[in-house]
Specification:
Order of helices and strands: HEEHEHEHEHEHHHEHEHEHEHH
Number of helices: 13
Number of domains: 2
Strand order of the largest sheet: 1-6-5-4-2-3
Shape: globular
Strand content: 15-25%
Largest sheet: 6 strands, mixed
Number of strands: 10
CATH architecture of the largest domain: 3-Layer(aba) Sandwich
Distance between the termini: 31 Å
CATH class of the largest domain: Alpha Beta
CATH superfamily of the largest domain: Glucose-6-phosphate isomerase like protein, domain 1
Structural class: alpha/beta
CATH topology of the largest domain: Rossmann fold
């Protein structure tokens, strides 16, 4: 299915009512640890930042994070792998089992759901609709909220997704895509909006199959900014980049000031600048911005002759390390 057609159906995710299998041992916890890689942790990132769930840790590695015993005494380990075959998440599952920690899982299938069934672990099976993980934000966020048994959080996700009119971002997204042809996107946001910047990066990587990078303010000002202090020998190299600033009027005033000054300094050095306004708040802000990025990458994918939004290089990599 063409990516543009897929985008028009994304709202269907927000009517999904996930069923928890083996719910008997599931209860609310004070802390949540979501183990996931790539697109499989994006929903958790949105919940952590825009759902106000500060007691949520995202683990993107093997094993389990090094947290205090006090946290683990009242923590639920949520194993999130869209494919169900992510080896890092499966390793986390085995580590949690060895320690006797409460667990829950969410996936479309694969070895993760086999593990959950074998050990009677509460789990949710995401519908297999052919979506890539980065496009399944609604499924992931709603499923995790359901495992957390947080009804207000789940309702907020549904409301934001249902209210989204993705076509409003088609024209401006495609215009941005045209301006990015031949450029390497560098996405900058405030620290609080890092989940959105990361979503943008992934969409450039996977939809358009191009390098893209993200960083946050104020950290960017203390090191990365120096990388644009061009001299004659590096001017052409730097001009291949395009700095995309995700601006949010809710950011700290000094962050807004830093972004403005950084834009001024990069422009003086011939670095292309794009300013993207993050409108709204909460999950709605994130979902609208993701749509903006998707439409930009459609133009790039068409221009570069990218055949589809699938990720064969990641699949090949997984095959090779599994040998």
């Amino acid at each position: 299915m063409a990516l543009k057609d897929t985008l028009l159906r994304l709202s269907e995710q927000y009517g999904w009512q996930p069923e928890i299998v083996n719910p008997e041992t599931l209860r609310p916890h004070r802390h949540y640890i979501v183990c996931g890689m790539g697109g499989s942790h994006l929903g958790a990132g949105l919940i952590q930042t825009y759902g106000g769930v500060a007691e949520l840790t995202i683990h993107r590695d093997y094993g389990l994070p090094e947290l205090s015993q006090q946290i683990y005494e009242d923590a639920l380990v949520i194993l999130s792998s869209y494919s169900g075959t992510t080896e890092e998440v499966l390793d986390s599952a085995r580590a949690a089992l060895e320690r006797g920690l409460p667990m829950a899982a969410i996936s479309t299938g694969g070895k993760l759901l086999e593990f959950a069934r074998e050990h009677a672990i509460p789990h949710i099976q995401i519908p297999e609709t052919g979506l890539e993980p980065r496009l399944a934000l609604g499924f992931a966020a709603i499923g995790i909220a359901r495992l957390m048994q947080n009804q207000p959080l789940e309702a907020a996700i549904r409301d934001a997704g249902t209210a989204l009119d993705i076509t409003l971002y088609e024209a401006i997204g495609e215009q941005l895509g045209q301006r990015l042809i031949g450029k390497i996107p560098l996405i900058y946001s405030s620290t609080r909006n890092l989940p959105i910047a990361y979503i943008w990066k992934i969409k450039f990587n996977e939809n358009a199959k191009i390098p893209a990078f993200e960083n946050v303010f104020p950290e960017m000002c203390h090191n990365e900014l120096t990388g644009f202090d061009v001299v004659d020998a590096t001017r052409e190299l730097s001009s291949r980049m395009c700095a995309i600033f995700l601006e949010d009027e809710q950011d700290h005033p000094r962050i807004q000031k830093r972004m403005s000054v950084a834009q001024e300094m990069l422009s003086e050095r011939g670095i292309p600048i794009e300013r993207v306004s993050l409108d709204g708040d909460g999950f709605g802000k994130a979902f609208r911005s993701a749509a903006y990025a998707d439409y930009a990458t459609i133009i790039l994918a068409d221009t570069y002759g990218v055949p589809n939004p699938e990720t064969p290089m990641v699949a090949d990599f997984k095959h090779r390390i599994g040998q």
